[in-house]
Model the fold of this input.
Amino acid sequence: MMRQGALDRKMFSVYIGRNGNPGELMLEGYDSNWFKGGLIYMDIASPVAWDVWLDEIQVGGLSISDGTAVTTSTMAVFVFGPSEKVSRFAEKLGGKEE
Done:
Protein backbone atom coordinates (compact mmCIF):
# COMPACT_ATOMS: atom_id res chain seq x y z
CA MET A 1 0.00 0.00 0.00
CA MET A 2 2.92 2.33 0.67
CA ARG A 3 4.41 1.59 -2.75
CA GLN A 4 1.06 2.36 -4.37
CA GLY A 5 0.88 5.71 -2.59
CA ALA A 6 -2.31 4.76 -0.75
CA LEU A 7 -0.81 5.60 2.66
CA ASP A 8 0.98 8.72 3.83
CA ARG A 9 2.39 7.41 7.12
CA LYS A 10 4.38 4.23 7.77
CA MET A 11 2.40 3.43 10.89
CA PHE A 12 -0.16 0.89 11.97
CA SER A 13 -1.65 -0.32 15.23
CA VAL A 14 -3.32 -3.53 16.31
CA TYR A 15 -5.74 -4.05 19.17
CA ILE A 16 -6.40 -7.69 20.00
CA GLY A 17 -9.96 -8.13 21.24
CA ARG A 18 -10.73 -10.05 24.42
CA ASN A 19 -13.54 -12.33 25.55
CA GLY A 20 -15.04 -12.67 22.08
CA ASN A 21 -14.98 -8.93 21.39
CA PRO A 22 -13.58 -7.82 18.03
CA GLY A 23 -10.09 -6.42 17.59
CA GLU A 24 -8.98 -3.56 15.39
CA LEU A 25 -6.33 -2.89 12.76
CA MET A 26 -5.75 0.79 12.11
CA LEU A 27 -3.53 2.05 9.30
CA GLU A 28 -1.66 5.37 9.60
CA GLY A 29 -2.42 5.82 13.28
CA TYR A 30 -3.73 4.46 16.57
CA ASP A 31 -6.67 4.76 18.94
CA SER A 32 -5.53 6.02 22.35
CA ASN A 33 -8.62 4.46 23.96
CA TRP A 34 -6.92 1.04 23.68
CA PHE A 35 -3.89 1.74 25.88
CA LYS A 36 -2.56 3.73 28.82
CA GLY A 37 0.64 5.76 28.80
CA GLY A 38 2.64 7.02 25.87
CA LEU A 39 3.97 5.54 22.67
CA ILE A 40 7.56 4.66 21.95
CA TYR A 41 8.53 4.68 18.30
CA MET A 42 11.07 2.03 17.36
CA ASP A 43 13.12 1.23 14.29
CA ILE A 44 12.88 -2.35 13.12
CA ALA A 45 15.97 -4.52 13.60
CA SER A 46 15.34 -6.67 10.52
CA PRO A 47 14.01 -5.78 7.07
CA VAL A 48 12.19 -9.12 6.75
CA ALA A 49 10.32 -9.37 10.07
CA TRP A 50 8.89 -7.18 12.82
CA ASP A 51 12.05 -7.50 14.90
CA VAL A 52 12.74 -4.66 17.32
CA TRP A 53 15.53 -4.05 19.82
CA LEU A 54 14.47 -4.79 23.37
CA ASP A 55 16.50 -2.96 26.00
CA GLU A 56 14.69 -4.38 29.02
CA ILE A 57 11.73 -6.58 29.92
CA GLN A 58 10.11 -6.82 33.35
CA VAL A 59 7.60 -9.33 34.69
CA GLY A 60 6.79 -9.00 38.36
CA GLY A 61 10.12 -8.64 40.14
CA LEU A 62 12.11 -10.28 37.33
CA SER A 63 14.02 -8.00 34.97
CA ILE A 64 16.37 -8.78 32.08
CA SER A 65 18.20 -5.89 30.47
CA ASP A 66 20.91 -7.10 28.14
CA GLY A 67 19.58 -5.74 24.84
CA THR A 68 18.47 -8.23 22.24
CA ALA A 69 16.34 -8.27 19.10
CA VAL A 70 12.86 -9.75 19.57
CA THR A 71 10.18 -10.61 17.04
CA THR A 72 6.76 -9.10 17.56
CA SER A 73 3.73 -10.91 16.19
CA THR A 74 0.00 -10.68 16.67
CA MET A 75 -0.36 -14.40 15.93
CA ALA A 76 2.47 -15.90 18.00
CA VAL A 77 1.54 -18.31 20.77
CA PHE A 78 5.17 -19.03 21.59
CA VAL A 79 8.03 -17.00 23.00
CA PHE A 80 11.43 -17.68 21.51
CA GLY A 81 14.69 -16.66 23.06
CA PRO A 82 17.69 -17.88 25.02
CA SER A 83 16.55 -20.91 27.01
CA GLU A 84 17.77 -19.73 30.41
CA LYS A 85 15.94 -16.39 30.07
CA VAL A 86 12.72 -17.77 28.62
CA SER A 87 12.61 -20.40 31.38
CA ARG A 88 12.80 -17.72 34.08
CA PHE A 89 9.95 -15.73 32.56
CA ALA A 90 7.84 -18.82 31.89
CA GLU A 91 8.18 -19.80 35.55
CA LYS A 92 7.22 -16.29 36.67
CA LEU A 93 4.13 -16.32 34.42
CA GLY A 94 3.07 -19.85 35.35
CA GLY A 95 3.90 -21.26 31.92
CA LYS A 96 6.03 -24.20 30.95
CA GLU A 97 8.88 -24.70 28.54
CA GLU A 98 8.43 -27.28 25.80
About this structure: The radius of gyration is 16 Å. The helical segments are 83-93. The CA atoms of residues 11 and 28 lie 5 Å apart. The mean pLDDT is 81.
